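ok so i was messing around last nite and threw this chain in just to see what happens. nothing serious, just curious
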Amino acid sequence: MFDVRPLSGSFGAEVIGFTIGENNTAEQVEAVKALWAKHKILLFREQSMDEKVLVDFSRQFGELEIHVRTEYLSPHHPEVLYISNIKDGDRKIGILADTEVGWHYDQIYLPRPAVGSLLCADILPPTGGNTEFADMAAAYQSLPEGTRERLKGCRAIQSYEAFNRAYSVPTNDAQKKRSPDIEHPLVRRHPITGKDALYLCPGMTTEIVGWNATESSEMLEELFEWCVKPEFVYSHQWQAGDAILWDNACTMHRRDPFDQNYQRLMKRTTILPAAHLAVPV
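result:
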């Protein structure tokens, strides 16, 4: 139905000949869903940045979340989060302005974490701001068998506050109540494909539950280093009009910094799993 070009040796594909929101048929959307499950991240070039179009398309993949950072939501479509360094007077319109953003899973800190995100490039600086994605399923499968055995049944603490201290801005009291530290499995079974993936990230995973501090720290550092080996990573250099749909149950991502003298505006929707698949296992 569509032409597909691999983005890396491990995962990711560019979908050629598909326009988001251009009278997409149910058959086309199902084909995209199948490609998404297979490739984990999908790139669509030369797409519209119309927010209603992006919201309507994203909603075909699941319920959309209204992000906890309400101050950075689109004033017209609250399902859209702005990631930007642009200011409206003294107010920043978006989050994660222009510095480096370390490796993380979106919303791993929530009881019902996002299963996917659609990120769209509206305004870009001439250089910088590249996004890297890590294939956490491939990273898990490539671990030594002994390490996989040690991780069976383990759970870890995920902290949005840890991420904000390192890369973002503090949450207010109401937002803190919506995002307290939480436990999730260290190895997550994908709610759709059933495949296992490492479910941790340097930005938010702070400790392995029940392990002593030294063993926990050593194992997490070993895993953090392992899962960003070059064979598991795809680096994307954005072009205006790019849209990337990524699987947030088995890939994590990061962003390079860029020159703050140039504007950047990215628009993101956040896709939730079905209610019966809500809690990671």
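not much to say yet. The chain has seven helices and 18 strands.
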